[in-house]
Amino acid sequence: MKRDYKAVLFGNGTMGERHRKFFEYSGVQFLKIFDLGDLDGTGNVRTSLVDEFVSKDKVDFAVIASPATSHYEYAKLCLEREISVFVEKPLATLGAQAQELVDLAIRNNVILFVAQSECFNSVFLNFRKHFMNEIGAAGSSFRLEFRREHKYSARCRDVNVALDLLVHDLSLCLSMFRYEDLKVEKFTISKNEDRAQMQISIVKGAHAGAELDFIVDRNSDIDVRTISVEFRGNGGPACDYSVSLAPHNENGEVIHISDSLENEHKFFLKLMAGACTEWGRRAAQSAANAVKLATITTASS
Prior knowledge:
By secondary structure, this protein is α/β, with parallel strands linked by helices. 34% of the residues lie in helices and 23% in strands. The chain has eight helices and twelve strands. Strands 11-10-6-9-8-7-12 form a seven-stranded mixed β-sheet, covered by helices on one side. A five-stranded parallel β-sheet has the order 2-1-3-4-5, sandwiched between helices. Helix 3 links the parallel strand 3 and strand 4. It is globular and about 60 Å long. The model has no long low-confidence stretch (mean pLDDT 89).
């Protein structure tokens, strides 16, 4: 695997710094880190700096960890210049923009990778493997509840809770079930945009009739990231259960699982080396589909 990649970074906050350290450990050299001091009067990186550092003959890929509302613009800028992109979630703030980026990456034959780290969480990967085997039994019916809550944080306040948190669990769902088989039955979001609930039915395919519930809250009294399983007989498994996607410390707060980030960086570098191309395109499409689901017409509660 090539280890002398050159990259640029948009946004050097908490996630930008984490991504930069992981990539540097793998031998990536960052030629430029665009941060607050590089912005023009409109809040975008100055054109002169983009022209100086962002071209396919100078960099192999860009890491975008800027505020979510700027992901689309920076990703499009790089993809148009035929530069591969590693971008933090959400891919964009509108479903049409997210799909545009996926199509642009395919058209220019470059990589678009969305850093939705929960999809690389070893706990989730183990859960998915066993759960998909369980529901392989003919006639099994089920309900899944995805719950994600944490205490107030000043981070990621430029988008609502659906684009901040719900996209994580929608991406987990889309790694198990086809987007085309899903139907959103109900979606409500609080007026302060910190809490949301979504109900999805699987209406086609082998798992038609199953139900998926999503609960997210970024101003909660607790920290929790769980998937709960309820089976509904018909010859399927008899045991309901719940799994936590992260351990907790003695104060009940979620502990960050470092291998999720490590795994996603390894997968991206495999894509850069030419492996798993079709898998990478499917993953990018799933990230776009997660944005589409998270930005459907909402009702306030």
